[in-house]
């Protein structure tokens, strides 16, 4: 990990692009990748190199082979000279100097750019270049994941390989994915929350699945139980979403009848990691919409589907009409059960954690007594992490529009 960045510059000189490798005994060794021509800005230089990388994958792979850990750009922005670096985890480093005096600051953290008012575009471009030249970050401790089925083999999948294992059948087609976690004995929550079931490997897979999502769909019970709000994505993760034509964060939609939600809770925060977020969508039946308070209508967008209960077929249709085609449902059991019974799920991604809890609690779906939901599922892929979490990806066989690539 980088501790600090020092950059030498010449006032009025062209911007410079540097790659930084972590090679003992020297902790950080910057090497000049390119020196821009006079008159070009750091933004132009970054744009040029992103273009080069998009066209010639070879450049990116060569740099990755050289072991790039971070990329830095230096030059003049808005009348001040900056040195700005980002590492593979999306951590930012800033060195700022002034013509007179020797102010030198070094900051780190994903909101460094926001604090120092660097243009958002600079952060986004640097993030894309970091991802293309330096590659994915190393997995967190305990979260190395390997292929199990249909082919066993690769033992340490990187972010891009793992993402490929969760590729959608069509990058733009309609798709509803349930993402869930369960103990060996089928429990979906312990003491009212799923926190005890999740792990660093589970979070890794969840973030990858989220990378392709237009919208996250949840039941209000989960929002209340988990005090749900979106976790911040790293700058390279956002860059990957952008490169995929998506906004920095997926939209969030919540199904509710009672509208009993904490309007000051994390779900209603309008900014995540410095990125402005659209208001959450509350999907309600007509009966609830009629009684909704002004405060709710102001904090969220209301989408009416059904009369007394939300009609999920209608709701999913309406979301698609708004362009939310790739939907990730995060549960909980009541919502997931209804989606299953309405035959609205194309895929189930379930993590089985190696825990045998032997207490009462919800399963990953809930439903009424009586006839079970129909439909056969087939295992599409399975993966395993070093802590023994099993990642299973199930899809529906049958019509071509259900098949997954
Ligand atoms: N293991 C996992 O992967 C996982 C994932 C998510 C959640 N969980 C756990 O599951 C538990 C919550 O379970 P849950 O079944 O209550 O969660 P849920 O499905 O998230 O929420 C149920 C609530 O959603 C609303 N709702 C669902 N269907 C509706 C419909 N057709 N029309 C109108 N409103 C509808 C209602 O909200 P109102 O009451 O507001 O009307 C209902 O009370 C928590 O302990 C949570 O930690 C586990």
Question: What does this protein structure show overall?
Answer:
This protein is an alpha/beta fold. The chain folds into 2 domains: 16-134, no CATH class; 145-402, Dihydrofolate Reductase, subunit A (3-Layer(aba) Sandwich), CATH 3.40.430. The protein is built from 12 helices and 17 strands. The protein has a 10-stranded mixed β-sheet with strand order 6-16-17-15-7-14-8-9-12-13, sandwiched between helices. A hairpin with a 2-residue loop joins strand 10 (271-272) and strand 11 (275-276). Helix 1 packs across helix 2 (57-65), helix 1 packs parallel to helix 4 (120-134) and helix 4 packs across helix 8. The protein is globular. Bound molecules: NADP nicotinamide-adenine-dinucleotide phosphate. NADP nicotinamide-adenine-dinucleotide phosphate binds at residues 180-181, 188-189, 192-194, 197, 218-222, 225-226, 255-258, 260, 285, 309-310, 330-335, 338, 362, 364, 366.
